[in-house]
Specification:
Layout lengths: L5 E6 L3 H11 L3 E5 L5 H11 L3 E6 L4 H14 L5 E5 L4 H9 L4 E4 L4 H13 L12 E6 L5 H17 L6 E5 L6 H6 L7 H6 L6 H7 L1 E2 L5 E4 L12 H14 L2 E5 L6 H9 L3 E6 L3 H16 L8 E7 L7 H8 L2 E7 L2 H10 L3 H4 L4 H13 L9 H17 L3
Parallel strand pairs: 1-2, 1-3, 3-4, 4-5, 6-10, 6-11, 7-9, 7-10, 11-12, 12-13
Antiparallel strand pairs: 8-9
Length: about 400
């Protein structure tokens, strides 16, 4: 605890729990009990005591009501720091607490050192993010005619980036493309926290959310996707969604952003203006090439610079027209890479939840993806070899064994 005295308000409704909290906080803190579960009463006490934070008890029987309580409280006082309390640390309960806007969670009865550590974290995060903070790289991918292979490509690219950077650098796959959530099939993930949940927390975003509720692949890649229910998108503001991408770049060193199938030009403009690199994902289908051309023309008319845009031709067959040079000429952008066709094994990877880096580490498809990732990161690709890729696979295999997979 900091040496200065802090005041806190607690809604716990149990004298034993209140005594535990008071003793854990120690003499350097003063705890005020909220005597009724009313937002008005809670905020009145917060203002009267100039409270640094509030504690709110959540239980399995009333977690929905308490979530609404915290949401209503934060709607009136967005900067208020909330710490959720629970009699157990069940994942669903913790997720409910954090979704409501609480900044941290503590199991009731936790040792004093854990209570004070949580308070220190919350108070340290109370300061808004420094606008001058370093931002991670943002590699955005667009495609005007996406399918499941677009999501697979984005997921494989993010996995390759994860394997190429040092372990202490954080990598995020932000999959906002369609079909929704297809990348999760390849990664064998079933997250309960979505992009919409993160947008709702954008004004209270911190490292706790990243560690506690972001889906994470065994490779260490973090993943955030759209919700399966498209109606949830209607509940968020576009400005908050765009702001979240900026916030995520302060927590991740590298973000691979899949925008395949996003046609809202206004949102695309805002997102792509911040991109470190813009990739156009296509195949050799003439209809796909023409759709991507129309999308690029719309971006040009909207004054979005596509000078540094590069095209990636996926599932490439050298004996089929149009050639990669013809596609680049049609789109009026430079060719970056062509990924050889390996449809059966890519389909097997998607269906089995085993990426190509694991399923076929020495394939031409995997080599092309890794070389593309190396180019994005400005790494030397001359030394990439099958043996190097096999070492990557061994790392992934070791991680899966460690997790019991």
């Amino acid at each position: 605890m900091p040496p200065s005295k802090h005041f806190f308000v607690a809604l716990v409704e149990n004298e034993a729990h209140l005594n535990w909290l008071e003793q854990a906080l120690g003499s350097s803190a003063s705890l005020v009990e909220c005597d009724e579960p009313s937002v008005d009463r809670m905020l009145q006490l917060v203002d009267t005591a100039s409270a640094s934070a509030v504690f709110v008890r959540f239980g399995n029987a009333d977690q929905a009501q308490r979530s609404q309580f915290v949401l209503r409280m934060l709607a009136r006082k967005p900067s208020l720091a909330v710490i959720g309390l629970g009699e157990c640390d069940d994942r669903d309960l913790v997720l409910s607490v954090l979704r409501s806007g609480a900044r941290d969670f503590l199991p009731i009865g936790a040792p004093a050192v854990e209570v004070n550590a949580a308070v220190d974290r919350v108070l340290a995060r109370h300061t808004p993010i420094d606008a001058s903070a370093a931002l991670g790289s943002l590699h955005a991918m667009i495609c005007a005619r996406p399918d499941g292979y677009s999501a697979s490509f984005a997921a494989h690219l993010a996995l390759a980036v994860r394997q190429l950077v040092p372990p202490d650098e954080k990598v995020l796959l932000l999959d906002l493309g369609t079909p929704v959530g297809d990348s999760l099939l390849l990664l064998d993930l079933r997250p309960s926290y979505s992009f919409v949940d993160a947008v709702r927390s954008v004004r209270r975003f911190d490292q706790t959310l990243v560690h506690a509720v972001f889906a994470q692949h065994s490779s260490g890649l973090s993943v955030l996707t759209l919700p399966e229910d498209p109606t949830e998108l209607e509940q968020i503001q576009a400005a908050d969604a765009i702001a979240l991408i900026g916030v995520l770049r302060t927590y991740f060193d590298h973000v691979v952003l899949n925008l395949a199938g996003l046609f809202d030009l206004e949102q695309l403009v805002f997102m792509l203006e911040k991109a470190t690199r813009l990739l156009v994902h296509t195949d050799q289908c003439v209809a796909t090439c023409r759709a991507n051309y129309r999308l690029l023309q719309a971006l040009r008319q909207a004054k979005v610079s596509v000078d540094d845009c590069r095209v990636v031709v996926d599932r490439y067959h050298p004996r089929i027209d149009p050639s990669v040079d013809q596609i680049a000429k049609l789109l009026e952008v430079e060719l970056w890479s062509c990924v050889p066709a390996d449809g059966l094994r890519v389909l097997e990877a998607i269906n089995s939840g085993k990426p190509m880096l694991e399923l076929a580490p020495n394939s031409g498809y995997t080599r092309a993806i890794v070389q593309l990732a190396a180019s994005l990161l400005d790494r030397d690709v001359a030394g990439l070899s099958g043996g190097w890729l096999e070492r990557i696979w061994r790392q992934l295999r070791s991680l899966r064994r460690a997790e019991g997979g």
